Amino acid sequence: MLDRFTMPLTHRPLLLIARYLSSRRVTPDQVTLGTFLVGMASLPLLAFEYYAFALIAIVLNRLGDGLDGALARLSGRQSDAGGFIDIGLDFVFYAAVVLGFALADPEQNALAATVLLFAFIGTGTSFLAFAIAAKAHNVERPNFPQKAFYYLEGLTEGTETIIALVLFCLFPQHFPWLAGLFAAACIMTTATRLWGGYWTLRQYNDH
């Protein structure tokens, strides 16, 4: 919901960093893997309840998430392979954060974490399944032309997910309630994406 507003704000800072990395011959795939590994450090940090350090790892991962794409565009290295590994590792990272909270306090957090992972399955699959069909029909993406795949909007997008992860770390004692609320928003996103995506694709099939 908020990505169309926040992404333009990050364009210039990411471009400046991408130029520096390009001058150092850093590749987009190296950035993707590096930020993923930094983000995955949050899993053991959360499990051992080092929430402040986990928050740093999460924020660094999210700050670096758009950097690989900016670097790819700058260096002319955009590819389906890069877009694929980027989004794939993103979903692994999201799941790892939720797992970290479940491990930190299984008695309190496990059920909420399970519900949130269930909701993530819906948002992830509806997002990626539509991207595959949209590419086959050459569906345009006017709000996110820089993306390597069709960016299907919804109530919970990247910005909302970042906010949720930050809140989880700032208020870990309230994780069950926060995770439940975010899971409900994700389920609503899945429903609207399935409905909207179905009827959008029906228009292309009918023609």
From TrEMBL:
Alphabetically ordered keywords of this record: Membrane, Transferase, Transmembrane, Transmembrane helix
Entry keyword annotation includes Transferase: yes
Entry keyword Transmembrane helix: yes
Pfam families found in the cross-reference section: CDP-OH_P_transf (PF01066)
PROSITE patterns named in the record: CDP_ALCOHOL_P_TRANSF
GO annotation (BP), single: phospholipid biosynthetic process
Molecular function via GO: phosphotransferase activity, for other substituted phosphate groups
InterPro entries (alphabetical): CDP-OH_P_trans, CDP-OH_PTrfase_TM_dom, CDP_ALCOHOL_P_TRANSF_CS
Cellular component annotations (GO), alphabetically ordered: membrane
Regions crossing the membrane: 36-60, 81-104, 110-136, 148-171, 177-201
Record family assignment: Belongs to the CDP-alcohol phosphatidyltransferase class-I family.
Protein name: CDP-alcohol phosphatidyltransferase
